[in-house]
C-alpha cells in the first residue's frame, strides 16, 4: 500500500493512505490544489509499490497521458523499463534506475536495478517505486535544510532525487576501482598456486563492472534532456539547470571510470592468459628437453647393448679360445670411445 503524509507543504511516506484499503480507480476525487504558485503550496506525493488500480487512479486525478499510464503499469517488468525522460503538456516524467545494493556490504550482489519514476508537475511532484528506498528520506532531509535558502520547486526536488541516486553509485564505483587495481597488480606477480583465485576475481570484477554499466546506461542522455528542458523554462527554475549540469558531470565521470575499469580488466585477463601460455610453453620446452636427452642416451647405449649381445651369444665368437682379457679390453675400449665421441658430438650440437 502507498503511504503519504503532509508536512510543511510536502507529501512524504509516513502514514497509510486509505488506512489499509485498496480503493478502485473510481473512488478517488481530484484534489483541490491551491491556486497560488508559491513554495508553501508545493506538494510531493510518494507512492511505494503501487498496484494497477492505484496507478490508474493517479493517472485520472492528475490527467496523465495514456502512454504514461501504460509505462507505469509496466513498472514491475524490468526487461521493458529503461532510463528515460518524456515531456508532456503539463508535466514531465523521469525514469531513473537505482539499486539498494549500493547500501549493502556486497554491492551489485544479484540485485537488479529498480526503476524510480518522478512525475514533475507544475506545483508538485509524484514519485513511484516498487520498494522503500532511502532516496526519499535523504531528499526530504535536504529539503528541510534548503527550504530557507533555496526556492523549492518541483524541478529542484527532482534534481535532489537524481543527485542522491547518482551519489549512491560513487562508493560502488570507487570499490570497483580499488579491486581492479589490486587484480591488475596481482596478475603480474601471481604464483602458480594462485591461478584459480585470480581468474575467479577477474570474473567477479567483470560482473561488477557490467552491473554498473547496466545501471549507468542511459542516465547521461536522460540528464542531458532534463537539463535542456529546465533551461527552456529558466524563469521557473533559474539555478536547477546548473545543479543538473553538476550531476551530469558526476555521472559522466562515473561512466568513464567504469569503462576504464572494464579496459583494465580486459587487459588483466589478457595478461593472465599470456602468463599462463608462457608457463605452459616453458613446461613444454622442459619436457621436450628431457625427452630429447632421454632419446640421445637411448641412442648411445643401444649400439653398446647390440655389441654386448653379439659377444654374449651361446655360439663360437672371436676371442673365445683366448685365456687373456685382450678382446674384452678391445671391446670395452671401443665402447668407451664411441660413448665419448657421441657425447662430444651431441654436446657440440647443443642437444644435451
From TrEMBL:
Protein name as catalogued: Mg2+ transporter protein
Transmembrane region(s): 294-313, 325-346
Annotated Pfam families: CorA
Cellular-component GO terms for this entry: membrane
Region (Disordered): 1-30
Organism of origin: Linderina pennispora
Record keyword rRNA processing present: no
GO BP, sorted A to Z: intracellular magnesium ion homeostasis
The keyword Transmembrane helix is assigned to this record: yes
